[in-house]
Design goal:
376 residues; conserved putative lor/sdh protein from methanococcus maripaludis s2 fold; Elongation Factor Tu (Ef-tu), domain 3; OB fold (Dihydrolipoamide Acetyltransferase, E2P); 4 domains; 6-stranded antiparallel barrel; 4-stranded antiparallel beta sheet; 19 strands; rod-shaped
């Protein structure tokens, strides 16, 4: 009985040992196959890196401001008798905008003019009497004073009437009217905005280290939402602030631009690019070629690589790069890529260092420095 039990145990052990040996050899074979496995190449597009010359520029965020801009307001209190403009209209300097009710002042002016005429007549009589020696010099002086006082009264009332006749202080474009006929206005009550919009200013700030590169006359290009895409408005820096902001360490600059079509309006948010006289040498690549990551920006360069089995294949090697400004579809690469290298321009999201690639440039990403999208 014991002998039979021992034989059975030996048989089971032999079977298990055989199965384990078979499975061991299967695992070793799978590991060897996995080690030599080469994933299929990824389809990508590429471009040969070329050195390009870009004019140096300084980007900034700006705000549009009028050369002249005021809220036209009532100089004296009164009731609106006439509104002589339309909202949004262009007006010339001195053009009538609003008339306040001056009936009381007109009556006072008529009385003052009558007193002035009487005082002038009395002065004329006194001049004749003083020559004949009939009257005293004191009476003649009093008559002269009355004449001057009457003239001053006429001028004062006339000035009050003029102050109730509100005119455009300069040529510009009006905003929306804020008053109505018959409305009583206090002194200083707003009537309408008036902005001089051609030419127009753009105010922006740049870091203090760039102050040495900014001079009056430096060209600027302005773009922004609401402006024609791909058609920047050009102007030049006309003024620099005399101090640097202590909180931001930025210097304020002001550019002046022609605005005949009124595309720029006061208060608009715009992008400003100050064009410097010198140029910089960069390698311009499509923006799709850049792999952005928290640890740095990189591109993939196609090279001849050696696989684990010693075979040669075309693969992608990751290069970390330093980026410069962007222009349209292109991004300037300052360092990390050399001219003549073949750079992957699309499909970078599916690559890793050493990935095999298959180049297909039938359809390539855009590389226009000033694109004009059809649906913009």
């Amino acid at each position: 009985m014991a002998r039979r039990m021992i034989l059975m145990l030996l048989s089971v052990a032999a079977v298990l040992g055989g199965l384990g040996a078979v499975k061991y050899f299967q695992i070793q074979t799978a590991v060897a196959q996995a080690a030599s496995f080469q994933p299929p190449p990824e389809a990508v597009t590429t471009a040969v890196a070329k050195r390009d010359e870009w004019p140096a520029s300084l980007p900034a965020i700006g705000s549009v401001a009028p050369v002249q801009g005021v809220m036209v307001s009532a100089d004296m209190p009164g009731i609106v008798a006439r509104i002589a403009f339309e909202s949004g209209a262009k007006v010339k300097q001195g053009q009538l905008l609003v008339e306040l009710d001056t009936r009381q002042e007109q009556a006072q002016l008529a009385a003052a003019q009558a007193r002035r005429e009487l005082a002038a007549a009395n002065l004329t009589r006194m001049e004749g009497l003083i020559k004949k020696g009939v009257t005293s010099h004191a009476e003649f002086d009093a008559s002269q004073a009355e004449d001057k006082q009457a003239a001053a009264s006429v001028g004062e009332i006339g000035a009050a009437i003029d102050r109730k006749t509100i005119r455009a202080p300069f040529t510009g474009v009006l905003g929306i009217c804020k008053v109505n006929v018959g409305q009583y206005l206090d002194s200083g009550a707003p009537i309408v905005q008036l902005q001089s919009v051609d030419p127009i200013h753009v105010n922006f700030s740049l870091p203090q280290q760039d102050a040495a590169n900014l001079l009056p006359g430096t060209p600027v290009r302005v773009t922004g939402d609401g402006l024609p895409p791909g058609e920047p408005i050009e102007g030049a820096i006309t003024a620099l602030d005399s101090v640097v902001d202590e909180k931001t360490r930025n210097i304020q600059a002001q550019a002046t631009l022609a605005n005949p079509n009124g595309l720029l309006r006061a208060g608009m948010f715009v992008q400003v690019e100050a064009v410097l006289p010198e140029s910089s040498h960069v390698i311009a690549l499509p923006a799709t070629a850049i792999n952005h990551a928290p640890y740095g920006d990189s591109v993939y360069v196609v090279e001849e690589m050696k696989g684990p089995d010693g075979s040669i294949y075309r693969g992608a090697r990751q290069h970390f790069v330093k980026l410069g400004p962007a222009r349209g579809d292109l991004v300037a690469v300052i360092s990390g890529v050399e001219p003549g290298q073949e750079v992957v321009t699309s499909g970078v999201f599916k690559l890793r260092n050493g990935s095999a690639v298959q180049v297909n440039n039938d359809v390539v990403p855009g590389d226009n420095p000033a694109p004009r999208p059809q649906d913009s």
